[in-house]
């Protein structure tokens, strides 16, 4: 089933703009506050934490634009899925933090699992041409 016209294309566009736009926002946040985020990453044991923050920010921005514009959407959604699969249990290990941090880490863990699931759904949808998209790299 192609999503090139009609209501499905409009709804998919809205979803792409929201999902991809918020992914872009998260990436920009990484790029604008790398020192603050690097401190958290360092506390979690990330080697080269500032590089990791900047690299993840670039990945999030590029993947987000890929979804919004329909440019290599399979690659964009796949990169997001791998990112959330790897980062989530490492950065938000709610089972291994002090009691006063458990709820915050659990909230972030759950949010990232949701983003992982959404990335998998978009990965499936990305194999079809999209309406209101550049459809580059299908």
Descriptors:
75% helix, 138 residues, single chain, mainly alpha, transmembrane helix, 5 helices, Quinol oxidase, membrane
Write up this protein.
The protein contains 5 helices and no strands. Helix 1 (6-32) packs antiparallel against helix 3 (49-69) and helix 2 crosses helix 3 (49-69). The longest helix has 27 residues, at 6-32. It is elongated, with a radius of gyration of 16 Å. The model has no long low-confidence stretch (mean pLDDT 95). The chain is mainly α and 138 residues long.
Contiguous uncertain segments of 5+ residues: none
| Strands, count | 0
The averaged pLDDT comes out at 95
Please give the count of helices: 5
Secondary-structure blueprint:
Elements: H1 6-32, H2 34-43, H3 49-69, H4 73-91, H5 99-125
Helix pairs in contact: 1-3, 2-3, 3-4, 4-5
Subcellular location: Membrane
GO cellular component, one term: membrane
Main location: membrane
């Amino acid at each position: 089933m192609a999503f090139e016209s009609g209501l499905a294309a409009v709804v998919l566009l809205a979803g792409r703009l929201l999902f991809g736009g918020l992914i872009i926002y998260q990436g920009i946040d990484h790029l604008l506050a790398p020192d603050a985020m690097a401190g958290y990453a360092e506390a979690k044991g990330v080697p080269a934490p500032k590089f990791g923050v900047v690299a993840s920010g670039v990945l999030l921005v590029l993947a987000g634009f890929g979804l919004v514009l329909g440019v290599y959407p399979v690659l964009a959604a796949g990169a997001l899925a791998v990112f959330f699969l790897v980062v989530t249990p490492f950065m938000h290990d709610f089972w291994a933090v002090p009691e006063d941090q458990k709820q915050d880490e659990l909230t972030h863990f759950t949010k990232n699992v949701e983003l992982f699931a959404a990335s998998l759904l978009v990965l499936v949808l990305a194999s079809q041409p999209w309406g209101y998209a550049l459809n580059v790299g299908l």
